[in-house]
Structures are given as C-alpha cells and as structure tokens.
Write a structure and sequence with these properties.
The chain is 61% helix and 9% strand. The chain is of the alpha/beta class. It folds into three domains: 243 residues, Rossmann fold (3-Layer(aba) Sandwich); 135 residues, no CATH class; 63 residues. An eight-stranded mixed β-sheet has the order 1-4-3-2-5-6-7-10, with helices on both faces. A two-stranded parallel sheet has the order 8-9. Helix 3 links the parallel strand 3 and strand 4. The two termini are 50 Å apart. The structure holds NADP nicotinamide-adenine-dinucleotide phosphate.
Length: 525
C-alpha cells in the first residue's frame, strides 16, 4: 500500500449535505477508471471528501489532484492491489492515516475474464473471486460497524446484469456478481434499520471503461444497449436510500425480467450460442483481415440472408394464401384494398375475397427493423438507434391499430391469428432448413436414436394429455377403458423414452466443432 504524501488540507466550504447524510467521507474502490472514476467525480461534485482506492497509481493520483482542485474537497489516493489478502488492512490504515472516517462505501472494484471455463487462467479465476467477492466483503466488514454505531452511512455494491442469469463464457464473473447482489440485498435487510442506506447497482454494458479490454469479450452491441458511466452513477445515487437494488436502463430491466420468466436451460443455451456466434464472427473477421481486405459493411452477409429469409417467408405465405387457399375454397383470394373497391367485404362475387396474408409483412416489421439497427445504424449513435427504434414501434403500432381494427370489424381475427401462426411456422421451417445440413453433419447413429426416442416420447406425452381433453372435454364422451389403457401406456412409455433419450445423448461423444457450427448459425441471425 502506498499512501500519497500530498497536502491534506483543502479550503472547503460548509460540510455538504451528502457528507452530513452519511457522516463521513466516501471510499470508492476501482476509482482510477470507468464507473469508479465516475462515482468519484459525482461524489466530489456533491462536496464529499474521498478515499480513492485502486492499483493504478498514476491515474489515481492524477484524479485525486484534479478533484481536489476542482471541488475543494480532500481526495486521498490509496494505491493497493485489492486481490491481496492484506488489502483491507492497507486500505484501513490509509484512511486512518488520512484522519478520515468512512460514511459511504462504494464497492465498485471488479473485473471479468471472458472465455470457456477450462481455457481461462486459474489465477485470473481465483483473482475474480478475490477482487469481486472477498475484497468487498472484507471492506464492508471493516467499515460498517462504525456506520451502525453512528446510525448513518451508505454502502453500494456494483454488481451487474450478469447477476441475473448464469452466463456461459463469463461463468466465474457472473457467479461473483450474483454473490455481490445477494450479499448487498441481504445487507439491505440487516442494515437499513440501523440507518445505513444500502444499494445493489446492476449496470449493463457501460462505457467508457476498461472492463471489456481486460475481459477480452467480443460484445460490442449488447441486447441491453450501452450506457454512459455517468448515467449509471446518476441512477445509483438517485436510488440510494430509496431502493434495495437497481438495474440501470429499461432494456436491461426488460432482459432481466425476460430471463427470469424463461426456462433457465433456454437462457443458458441461448447465451452460449450468442457468445459462440460472436466468437466465430470475430475469428472470421480476424481471418479475413489477414487474408484479404473486406468490404466495409455487411460483415458476413448476415443482413442479406436475414432479409432474404423474411422475403421468402412472406412470399411463401402469400403464395399459400393466393394459390392454395383459392384452390381449396374455389375463390380467388387477393389483397383488395378498400380504396380500390369500397364494397370488397360484401361483394357477392365469389372470385374475390379479402385476405389477411399480409399480416406476414406486419410480423416482419420489427425483425427487419432490428436487422437494420444492427447493420446500418452506427454503433456509437445511441440517439439515432433509439430514434429509429421508436419510429419503428410507432409505425408498427399504427399498422396494428389500423389493420387490426379492420380485422375486428369484419370478424377476421381468427383468420389473422392463423396467418400469424403460418408465418411463424414458415419462418421456423426456413431456419430449420438452414441449420439442417450443419446438424446432420454431426449425426451419428446413436444421436439419431436419441433424437427418435425424444420425438416419440414427446408424441406419447402430448397424446396422453390431448386425447382425454379431446374425447372427454371437447366431444363429451365418458371415460372409457380404452382411454385409460391408452394413458396408462403413453405416460410411462413417454417418460421411459425421454430418460432413454437423455441417456443416449450423454453417451454420445461430442462431435468436435458442432457447437461452433450452431453458434455460427445463431450468430448470423
Ligand atoms: N463496464 C461494464 O460494462 C460493466 C457492466 C456491468 C458491471 N460492471 C462492474 O462495474 C465495476 C467497475 O468496472 P468498470 O467497468 O468501471 O471497469 P474498469 O474501467 O476496468 O475499472 C475498474 C478499476 O478497478 C481497477 N482494478 C482492477 N483490479 C484491481 C485490483 N486487484 N486492485 C485494485 N484495483 C483494481 C482497474 O484497474 P485496471 O484497469 O488497471 O485493471 C480499474 O481501474 C466492476 O465491478 C464491474 O464488474 C461493469
């Protein structure tokens, strides 16, 4: 530990409201960069004396000097490696030597390392546990008793949206952040009644920070969007004393809610595919950059493929509507807008019937918009992205209101639902068709047997429910011996085949690169 030898006296004005509220200085860990630096700036602006902790001496000292000069506060720099077992004693000694008592503790320090668990450096993995979990626990243990005795104080833990789901390729990091979140929420329960304000802060991707550089993660355009560190800090300071826990950003909140309601296996698998897709895209970029110059846009033709898929799905649905339904119903079904024929809905002519197949087009509006945002709206221009997304939602809402109103007016709602379902099935089949060759490449006889067993198991179990519902519920037939025998067979046979399929799957040796192939496909879409 090195404490800076600088003048400790600053001509400060009155003790600030914030210093009064927390009864002492603020201690910020990981203050030399990123979110910690933004915390330091925001608290200095509120007139709080600071103890800044980090291992980056140069930046920390420069920040402390700048904040003292600008805000007329005391800012003590304590240079320490928080992964070390004696780090907390060093921090304590630094604050005592400076004669500062700590009223607000910002447990911000933390880092992540991206990559498959078995390929990560074990020293880094243990380091994440030390820095992200052990250090905040020990710091909180060191400074909280005084806060409780004073009956005022504040504690913030910087967790992450990664705490809301198990995250393959960020497995250890995400687990440390769950630790932080659960710990701080439990402390909120224990300490609030002693006058200590406690908050868990969960940011999503935040810039500018050095987090991604150190983590080596490939995410540049995350689903939750990218926030500025000052906004994240403002969210935390506004929520401190008001809430137990806060997630920064509406999109991050939405993702956190979504991953809570989805089955966890689905969340884990899609996260894995997301990262594997990004990895493949990155290595493709690296390979291509090595081999030949690349065109500046449409990195790997993903956009073109996505649009082609939508067009094919739309045309297929329209074709089914126009040709197949016309043949089946002996009426020519065609999109016939009201301004061409005001009586389209009541024409006696059997050759013309109003059709809803264009709902396929409506379904694709948000998907197309998402592709356009991803491919064309500059990554840095968050405002442009938000404006485009808002415009798209407005257009979609207008079309749904307008066409939806017509459908309801002419009692076409069931038909519309059927077209949405057909569109989804067509889209799903096209996606399946794309994946199939890659999937088939890894199909061994054992894998095939597992797939068949799973398919038949699903059929049996579904029939065990559907059959009685149809016979007894819909048709009003009494329970029959045949039905009971059928269920007595379907249920155990279904579970047996399901277990067999699982067993066969675990016995199948992993086909090298299969995950990579799937990841590639997921990454393309
Ligand atoms: N940025 C994001 O997208 C994001 C998202 C969610 C949550 N978070 C969380 O936000 C917190 C702050 O991260 P950030 O994004 O601001 O990252 P950052 O820019 O890297 O800031 C972290 C600071 O802590 C320092 N540090 C790292 N290990 C240390 C150690 N052992 N001892 C002392 N100091 C150490 C870093 O120094 P070096 O740079 O020299 O390592 C850096 O100055 C972390 O807890 C992180 O998990 C960040």
């Amino acid at each position: 530990m090195n404490k800076l030898n600088r003048s400790s006296h600053c001509d400060k004005g009155d003790v600030s409201e914030w210093s009064e509220r927390f009864g002492g200085a603020a201690l910020v860990t990981g203050a030399a960069s990123g979110i910690g630096e933004a915390f330091a700036v925001a608290l200095a602006a509120r007139g709080m004396d600071l103890v800044l902790v980090d291992w980056d001496r140069e930046r920390l000292e420069a920040l402390a000097l700048a904040l003292e000069a600008e805000h007329r506060i005391r800012a003590e720099a304590v240079v320490v490696d928080l992964a070390q077992p004696d780090a907390v004693q060093a921090v304590r000694a630094g604050t005592e030597a400076a004669g500062l008592s700590i009223g607000l503790l910002i447990n911000n320090v933390g880092y992540g390392v991206y990559g498959p668990f078995t390929e990560q450096d074990p020293v880094e993995q243990a380091g994440m546990v030390d820095v992200n979990c052990r250090a905040p626990v020990m710091l909180t243990r060191a400074f909280t008793p005084d806060m409780v005795a004073r009956r005022r104080g504040g504690i913030v833990f910087v967790s992450s949206t990664a705490a809301y789901q198990p995250t393959p390729h960020f497995a250890v990091y995400a687990a440390t952040k769950v630790f932080d979140l659960f710990l701080v929420e439990a402390l909120w329960g224990e300490l609030t009644r002693h006058g200590v304000e406690v908050l868990g802060l969960s940011p999503g991707h935040t810039r500018p920070t050095r987090f991604s550089e150190r983590a080596g993660d490939p995410v540049s355009n995350p689903p939750g969007g990218v926030a500025r560190r000052e906004e994240v800090v403002a969210t935390a300071l506004a929520a401190l004393g008001q809430k137990r826990s806060v997630i920064h950003g509406l999109r991050n909140v939405a993702v956190a809610v979504l991953v809570r309601v989805l089955p966890r296996t689905v969340v884990i698998q899609s996260t894995l595919r997301y990262f594997e897709g990004l990895d493949l895209a990155c290595s493709k970029v690296e390979d291509d950059a090595r081999d030949r110059p690349r065109p500046p846009t449409s990195l790997d033709g993903r956009f073109a493929r996505a649009v082609a898929r939508m067009l094919i799905a739309f045309l297929a649905v329209s074709f089914i509507d126009l040709v197949v339904c016309s043949l089946l119903t002996h009426k020519l079904r065609f999109w016939f807008p009201a301004w061409i024929d005001a009586r389209w809905d009541s024409r006696p002519d059997s050759w013309v019937t109003y059709s809803q197949s264009y709902v396929a087009g409506i379904v694709f509006i948000p998907m197309l918009a998402a592709e356009v945002i991803r491919e064309f709206v500059p990554k840095a221009a968050a405002a442009a992205r938000t404006a485009f997304a808002t415009g798209t939602v407005a257009v979609l809402a207008f079309i749904v209101w307008w066409k939806g109103g017509l459908m309801l007016q002419y009692h076409k709602e069931q038909e519309a639902v059927a077209w949405v379902a057909l569109t989804a099935v067509t889209w799903g089949l096209i996606r399946l068709g794309e994946k199939l060759p890659a999937r088939m490449a890894g199909v061994t006889p054992l894998r095939l047997a597992a797939g068949l067993a799973r398919g038949v198991a699903v059929f049996f179990l579904v029939m065990a429910v559907v059959d009685p519902v149809l016979c007894v519920g819909v048709q009003g037939l009494p329970w029959s011996k045949g039905l009971i025998v059928e269920m007595g067979f379907f249920v155990p046979a279904g579970f047996f085949l399901w277990a067999l399929a699982r067993r066969l799957s675990t016995d199948v040796p992993e086909v090298q690169c299969e995950g990579a192939i799937e990841g590639n496909i997921a990454g393309e879409t």
